[in-house]
Amino acid sequence: MKNKTKKALSFDYRYGFSMPSQPVTKTKKGLSQKIVTEISKHKKEPLWMKNIRLESLALFEKKPMPSWGADLSEINFKNITYFLRATKSQKQRWEELPQEIKETYDRIGVPEAEKKFLSGVSAQYESEVVYEQMNKELKKKGVIFCNMDTAVKKHASIVKKYFGKLIPANDNKFSALNTAVWSGGSFVYIPKNTRVDLPLQAYFRINSERFGQFERTLIIAEEGSYVHYTEGCTAPTYSTNSLHAAVVEIFVKKDARVRYTTVQNWSNNIYNLVTKRARAEENATMEWVDCNIGSKKTMKYPAIHLAGKNAHGEMLSIALAGKGQHQDAGAKMIHLAPETTSRVISKSIAKDGGRTSYRGLIHIAPNAKNAKSHVICDALLVDKESQSDTYPTMKVHAKNAQIEHEATTQKIDEEKLHYLTTRGLEEEQAKGLIVNGFIEPVAKEIPFEYAIELNRLINLEMEGSIG
To answer: 334 in a domain, yes or no?
Structure first.
């Protein structure tokens, strides 16, 4: 099979390859009521979801582009394809997928990961999930792990109860866009007192040029339950831009715990504009582990609403920006109840003229007595051309709240570099080792298999960064 990559620019990005595009269904470029209606028709959706889409489109058209954060002026909404179906049906065996899609996931390594350390896998290619499988024992316990398109039809009562309740369409321009054209994504339901000991993973792949991927993820963890959901993402490297605008809503009930790990490794022509929000009830724990390595521009600020007494929230993040990249990311901790606690650890690296920005909010509501929050924000500049910014906001409206904020900006330590190079390491290897030590407080929180991949990605990014 010929691999049609003449438009793709491979550089050193391992996943920058493209496959022949052979869509089953594809809408015309541009966004309109006709396109949104067509997407809903292709999916054979109920009328209530079609109406939500059309209402959201109207909101999107009225909402202005963000005037802060990353520069989004090059996005051309008229030149994007908003829906592409790559297969006639979803499969439960990798061997049943079209050859070019199966080869894509084999090269990425997802089937192998499923065999080794996952409870379930969902693989989205373009607009829809093409492969889905979950441990049979979990199904017997009542765990639901399926794509959102299936959930709208088979679990409508749950979807109606939670869809858009944490992130309404009018929240921002890109949540409105997602709600209008969403496709794919994951629906996870964990019954009361049920533990999912191995991670569930979703993998998102964009293959086409000038394409928009808009998955929607909804996770409900009932009282006393536990789940670790992980996601990864890659795309070919083209000379033209594509758009990824996802929405994630998570509901963590009393005494439950959810960990959501992202290793974002988009190619450097992707605008990654994501809205993620969770609600934690009494004694619940919500943890975001967010690693942003790829994309052209990222704007992402996962939030946790600490709504119940003793609820705890964590945000552990890594951002690396190279040439032509701006990682504008951060966290929002909204303390709404007494005795709530939160912790934010942000590690950012800028190299080759790249830019990282930490944008955070700690909000303590009047009734959030004795709330505690600790923020650590560290930036590492690899060269003189790179840039790092910090935009912390703290709004404290309760007495007896305890807020701590630490921030540092540093360069590669010349003494450490000299020590390592005099012990036989090349300068690039030495820098990679220093960077891996810098991100270690976050990397150690990631499952072993993902930590190995993250360190490999960091080392690849550091190659050629001497300056």
So the answer is: no
Q: Based on the structure, what is the number of domains in the chain?
A: 2
Distance, in Å, from the CA atom of 455 to the CA atom of 436, rounded to the nearest integer, reads: 7
Q: Which two tokens stand for residue 306?
A: 């600490």
SS3 content of the chain, % helix, strand, coil (to 5): 25, 35, 40
**Cα 80 to chain centroid, rounded:** 21
Q: What residue numbers bound the domain in which 120 lies?
A: 25-300
Is 282 inside any structural domain? yes
User: Do 263 and 135 belong to one domain?
Assistant: yes
| Mean per-residue pLDDT, 92-102 | 87
Segment 156-201, tens digit of pLDDT? 999 999 999 999 999 999 999 999 999 999 999 999 999 999 999 9
- With respect to residue 129, please indicate whether it lies within any of the assigned structural domains: yes
Where does a domain end: 300, 333, 357? 300
CA atoms within 13 A on the CB side of 102: 11
Q: Is the dihedral of CA 53, 59, 65, 70 positive or negative?
A: negative
Six-digit token string for 226: 């536990």
Angle of helix 33-43 relative to helix 173-181, nearest 10 degrees, comes to: 50
Checking if the pLDDT of 266 tops 90, the result is no
pLDDT of amino acid 12: 54
Instruction: Give the amino acid at 111.
Output: P
Distance CA 464, CA 100 (A): 32
Q: Are strands 226-234 and 247-252 parallel, antiparallel or unpaired?
A: unpaired
> Rounded distance, CA 199 to CA 130, Å?
19
What number is the average pLDDT over the span 296-323? Answer: 96
| Torsion angles phi and psi, residue 383, rounded to 5 | -150, 175
Shortest CA distance to 324 belongs to which of 437, 461, 173? 461
Cα three-residue angle 54-220-97, rounded to 5 degrees: 70
Q: Which two tokens stand for residue 324?
A: 């032509």
Q: What mean pLDDT is predicted for residues 312-335?
A: 95
> Do 294 and 440 lie in a common domain?
no
> What is the rounded distance in angstroms from the CA atom of residue 112 to the CA atom of residue 104?
13
Domain boundary residue among 259, 282, 300?
A: 300
pTM greater than 0.90 (yes/no) = yes
**Strands 120-125 vs 200-205: parallel, antiparallel or unpaired:** parallel
d(CA 105, CA 123): 9
295/427 same-domain check = no
Single-letter amino acid, residue 347: K
What's the pLDDT score for residue 8? 36
Helix and strand numbers (H, E) in the chain are: 11, 24
Q: Is residue 440 part of a domain?
A: yes
